[in-house]
Amino acid sequence: MSKSASRARLADIIRTRSFGRGEITLASGRKSDFYFNLKPTMLDPEGAALLAELTYEALRDEKVDYVGGLEMGAVPLAGAIAQLSWLKNHPIAAFFVRKKPKEHGARLSVEGLAKGESLAGKRCVIVEDVTTTGGSAIKAVEAVKESGAEIVLVLTMVDREEGAAEAFAAAGLPFRSLYKASEFLNA
């Protein structure tokens, strides 16, 4: 399938499985009359494959070592991208950032790395399912930077176009999205 056909098909899946109208409170605390819950798309076989394909294509030329982001939204994305990258013979490892470190065990905030493995000096992309103000992704960015990594990009599947681009620009972080909310609202 061509990139444009994959993108159109994924938009249909998102529209059917993950987009809705009705009052909702967002993670940022704001009220909205529309929402995106990308979990049904990320956990659908075709949706997962298309998200991984389009994200991998967006990252292929970035010389990325790792991809990950804040739990829970980034976990299925990062795993699918890692798997596809292996199949494409261009491995990109995955990780995720806990919202708060576990109170037992290793008490890690960044998970998925083997013993002795580190993000120090590695080129990382922060992925997110839906971005509103950018606050969740910024939390992940901070944790990954504390690990010594270089953040090369923040990539979201859907940008709600409610301040994230401006927040990332102010933080000096490159930001891209696969889709914008207006593509679904104006369709």
From TrEMBL:
It is an enzyme of class 2 (transferase). One of its GO terms (molecular function) is magnesium ion binding. Pathway: Pyrimidine metabolism; UMP biosynthesis via de novo pathway; UMP from orotate: step 1/2. It holds the Pfam family Pribosyltran. Residues 45-165 form the Phosphoribosyltransferase domain. It catalyses: orotidine 5'-phosphate + diphosphate = orotate + 5-phospho-alpha-D-ribose 1-diphosphate. InterPro entries: OPRT (IPR023031), Or_phspho_trans_dom (IPR004467), PRTase-like (IPR029057), PRTase_dom (IPR000836). GO terms for biological process: 'de novo' UMP biosynthetic process; pyrimidine nucleobase biosynthetic process. Gene3D superfamilies: 3.40.50.2020. 5-phospho-alpha-D-ribose 1-diphosphate binds at R98, K99, K102, H104, E128, D129, V130, T131, T132, T133, G134, G135, S136. It comes from the Bacteria. Orotate binds at T132, R160. Its cofactor is Mg(2+). Keywords: Glycosyltransferase, Magnesium, Pyrimidine biosynthesis, Transferase. Its EC number is 2.4.2.10. Homodimer. Catalyzes the transfer of a ribosyl phosphate group from 5-phosphoribose 1-diphosphate to orotate, leading to the formation of orotidine monophosphate (OMP). PANTHER family: OROTATE PHOSPHORIBOSYLTRANSFERASE (PTHR19278), URIDINE 5'-MONOPHOSPHATE SYNTHASE (PTHR19278:SF9). Belongs to the purine/pyrimidine phosphoribosyltransferase family. PyrE subfamily. This is Orotate phosphoribosyltransferase. It comes from Rhodopseudomonas pentothenatexigens. The gene is pyrE.
